[in-house]
Amino acid sequence: MFKKYFIDKSMTEDKILLTARYVEGDMDETERIGFEIRVQNELDLQQHLKDYNEIHQNLKIHLAPDQKNELLRDTLYAVNKQYFVEEARVASITPIINWMTGIAAVLLLGFLIWVPWRNNLYSVYAGNSAMSVTKRSAEKKTDLDQAAQLYNQKNFNAAKPLLEKQYMAEPENAIVAYYYGNTLVETSNVDDARAVLNNVYLGTSKFKYDAAYSIALSYLKNDRKAECKIWLQKIPAGTAHYKDAIELFNKL
C-alpha cells in the first residue's frame, strides 16, 4: 500500500513538472507534440495544465513586473555580491524572473494537489437532500414539520432535538432515522450517527443506500478515508448516490 502511494505520488509530481516545462516553452518540438497528444487522453494532465495556467496567470497579476523587478533586484544584488563578479549585475534578470515565477507555480500547484484542504470534499459531496413530510394544514403542524423546515434550512443544531424526540418515539421509522442520522453527522455526533444510520442500512427501506452514503461521509468528516471508501463501495449502481460515490472514491 505504501509503495503504491509513493509510486502514485512520484508519477503525479513528474506530470506537474512536465506540465510546467510545456507551459514555460522548455520542450523541443518532438516533446511538445508528444505532450499535447498525452493531454488529449489523460484527464490528470488536463487538470494539471488548467491549474498551472490559472496559478501562473494569478502570479503574474498579483506580482506586477515592476514589483518583481524591485523584489528580485535586491535579492539578486545580494547574491551577486557574495557569489558572482560585479559585472554579472548588468545581465538581464527577465529570464530569471520568468523562471522563478514558473517554479513558484509548480510548487504551489503541487502543494494544492497534496494538502488535505485542496478541496473540502465533505462539503462538496454532502449535499443533503431535502426532508419532506406529509403536507398538513397550517394549524396541524407538528414537531416533525418544524424539524423538516429547519433541516431544509440547514439549521441542523435546531433540527436535532426535534428529530431526536421523533426518533425516540419511532426508532423503526426509517425516514425519521435517516434524517436524524444526517443531522447527527452535520453536528459532529458521528459515532451516534453511525449507530442510527447503520440500523437504516440493515433494513429494507428505500433509504438503505442513502444511509450507507451518509455513513461514508461521516468517516470522511473524520478524515478516515479507508473506512469511507469501504462504505462507498457498498452503494450499488442505479441508486441515487452511486455517481457521487464513484467520484468521491476516486478522489480519496
Description of the structure:
This protein is an all-alpha fold. It is 73% helix and 0% strand. It contains 13 helices and no strands. The chain has helices at 2-23, 29-41, 43-62, 65-83, 94-114, 121-126, 143-152, 156-169, 174-186, 190-202, 208-221, 225-232, 242-251. α3 (43-62) crosses α5 (94-114) and α7 (143-152) runs antiparallel to α8. It is elongated and about 75 Å long. It starts with a helix and ends with a helix. The model is unreliable at 1-9, 83-93 and 113-119 (pLDDT under 50).
- Share of helical residues: over 70%
Return the average pLDDT rounded to an integer. Answer: 76
As a whole number of angstroms, the C-alpha radius of gyration is 27 Å
Largest sheet: none
- Strand runs, count: 0
Pick out the low-confidence regions. 1-9, 83-93, 113-119
**Given the structure, what is the number of helices?**
13
Structural class label: mainly alpha
Element order, helices and strands? Answer: HHHHHHHHHHHHH
Beta-strand percent range: under 5%
Shape category: elongated
Distance between the termini: 14 Å
Keywords, separated by commas or semicolons:
mainly alpha; 0% strand; 13 helices; disordered N terminus; 252 residues
Summary?
With 252 residues, the protein is an all-alpha fold.
Structural topology:
Layout: H1 2-23, H2 29-41, H3 43-62, H4 65-83, H5 94-114, H6 121-126, H7 143-152, H8 156-169, H9 174-186, H10 190-202, H11 208-221, H12 225-232, H13 242-251
Helix pairs in contact: 1-3, 1-5, 2-3, 3-5, 7-8, 8-9, 9-10, 9-11, 10-11, 11-12
